[in-house]
Specification:
This protein is an alpha/beta fold and 450 residues long. Among the domains are: 132 residues, Leucine Dehydrogenase, chain A, domain 1 (Rossmann fold, 3-Layer(aba) Sandwich); 158 residues, Rossmann fold (3-Layer(aba) Sandwich). Helices cover 50% and strands 15% of the residues. It is built from 17 helices and twelve strands. A seven-stranded mixed beta sheet has the order 9-8-7-6-10-11-12, with helices on both faces. Strands 1-2-4-3-5 form a five-stranded mixed beta sheet, sandwiched between helices. α5 links the parallel β3 and β4. It is globular and about 60 Å long. It binds NADPH dihydro-nicotinamide-adenine-dinucleotide phosphate (NDP) and (2Z)-2-iminopentanedioic acid. NADPH dihydro-nicotinamide-adenine-dinucleotide phosphate (NDP) binds next to α9.
Length: 450
Amino acid sequence: MSDLFEAKVNDFMAKIIAKNPGEAEYHQAVQEVTESLMPFIEENPVYSHAKILERIAEPERVIMFRVPWLDDQGNIQINRGYRVEMNSAIGPYKGGLRFHPTVNLGILKFLAFEQVFKNSLTTLPMGGGKGGSDFDPKGKSDNEVMRFCQSFMTELSRHIGPDTDVPAGDIGVGGREIGYLFGQYKRIRNEFTGVLTGKAIEWGGSLIRPEATGYGAVYFAQEMLKTQGDNLKGKVCAISGSGNVAQYATEKILQLGGKVVTLSDSAGFIYDEGGITEDKLKFVMELKNIKRGRIKEYADKYGVDYVAGKTPWSVKCDLAFPCATQNEINEDDAKTLVNNGCIAVSEGANMPSTPEAAEAFVKAQILYGPGKAANAGGVAVSGLEMTQNSMRLPWTRDEVDDRLQQIMTSIHDTCVKFGKDNSGFINYINGANIGGYIKVADSMIAQGVV
Ligand code: NDP
Ligand code: 2IT
């Protein structure tokens, strides 16, 4: 970046930091987008005159509320609930809910901000939002989770609706939580509508929604490899996480002939040099989705290595799929991956690479697909779930999967269109940020000063 652009980015960021103090993840997400956009905006002054970036970085609305609930011992517990309604220029607010003890306003603002660009990239009419709570579902009984969800939705139900704001899952929010949330919304509003996505198939969910984020991240990796005449066959893949996204990334890699050698959770990672098989993946799904156990139990069962307290990035691999959480790959991890011969990173998680890690990937000119492009398959199929709910007509697995593949290809095309530099290198960060921005920015201009 030239000195001029750097000065403009610094100036813009100083205002963002002053206005949003202490929100490190939010600053990080805005800075990355601003760095990509500054040259583009300077070339297209219509956007700077309309102050689009300044407006996009200010949430349309933030809702914060008390969530009181009774635990199994009859004690009153109090959590904080949030919904960040970031941008509705191209459609109703859309984005997941995260239940995790680390949740705070800054983290949800970064996630909502990323969601605006991601949703725009999907080609579907969805604005951006995100919500959640510092509630920790770990170690809670089903009844406690239900009471929490009912209390959370009692307040949230005033603010959302199928044409207003449509939440879904994220970390700590899966099928069980969506069920309890949906039940409470229906009871309060007396309406059976597509107000949440990620519903079970029997009551309005879409086939392939559980698989969509993980499958999509692998389809995106496949598209990136294709630009080099390569594919997934025989590739050794390191995956972090062992939740929804990691599980279905693993499944799709196996189907496409790759080999997955790691999975992790917040306590450590397993290294299965021989590769995770379909049977072993079944074990992981049962362990994580039903028994709600720890990934160490995989190592105990199959006699493979378990490394406590570490992330998997020291393992030699061809491809890396970070599918756990933000900032899980630091600069050293990124350099280790590159030095070990990693040729592509496809981010299933949101902002899993620190800015220094992302810079190391770009500098090494490996294929680096940032989350807002690579993990957009989840929200894309959420959009398809909304379509099916509106039509009151479900699609087949193949129909949804075909559309998902088309959408991931289209996102990749957009990244190439806006991210390819003069040397032919595809900077997917710039491609995703500029490609996601234009539709939202043009819509905001058309809708006036709102
Ligand atoms: P899950 O709750 O199903 O799984 C999360 C996984 O990540 C678990 O293995 C969890 O380990 C691990 N993890 C969570 N927080 C941390 C942490 N602070 N440090 C280390 N490991 C951690 O969530 P998802 O699979 O749905 O989400 C994973 C990522 O994908 C998130 O970044 C999410 O925002 C992103 N994403 C999800 C989409 C979806 O459709 N679900 C769509 C697009 C992106 P443990 O069990 O020990 O906490
Ligand atoms: O980060 C994400 O894109 C999600 N958690 C999915 C959002 C959605 O509305 O399906």
